[in-house]
Amino acid sequence: MQYSKERLTVAERLTRLHVEFRLIIGLVAMTCSALLYSPLIHARKSQLHELNMQFNIPSPCKPPPEDIATQAVLEKVAEDVNQENGVNAITSCLSIKGMPLPRFVFFK
């Protein structure tokens, strides 16, 4: 869930999983061939997607329904009295609260 809140890319997630948990997924396994002799956990390339689905990790690729997303954005904009926060700031705030949204939601 923390990786989703930080809005990490897939490559960054794979790298962090390798560094923090010594978990090798997909292409990382090919680049870490020297480390294969140490006790590491190996998984298929699609394992990251399967784990995200299994634990219901939020993603901008599967946003909430449009009315819920619009309401969340409008509430965040209403909190910003001086209108100083841009799209990136609002997106980051919503991601930290567990609702990552794609940028196109802001331009509808």
Structural class: mainly alpha
Mean pLDDT: 79
Please state the oligomeric state of the protein chains shown.
single chain
Biggest β-sheet: strands ordered side by side in the sheet = 1-2
What is the count of helical runs? 6
How is the topology of this model organized?
Elements: H1 2-5, H2 10-21, E1 23-25, H3 27-31, E2 41-43, H4 47-54, H5 66-79, H6 87-96
Parallel strand pairs: 1-2
Helix pairs in contact: 5-6
Task: Supply the key terms.
108 residues; two-stranded parallel ribbon; 2 strands
Give an account of the 3D structure.
The protein is mostly helical and 108 residues long. It has two domains: 53 residues, no CATH class; 42 residues. Strands 1-2 form a two-stranded parallel sheet. α5 crosses α6. The radius of gyration is 17 Å and the shape is elongated. About 6% of the residues have low confidence.
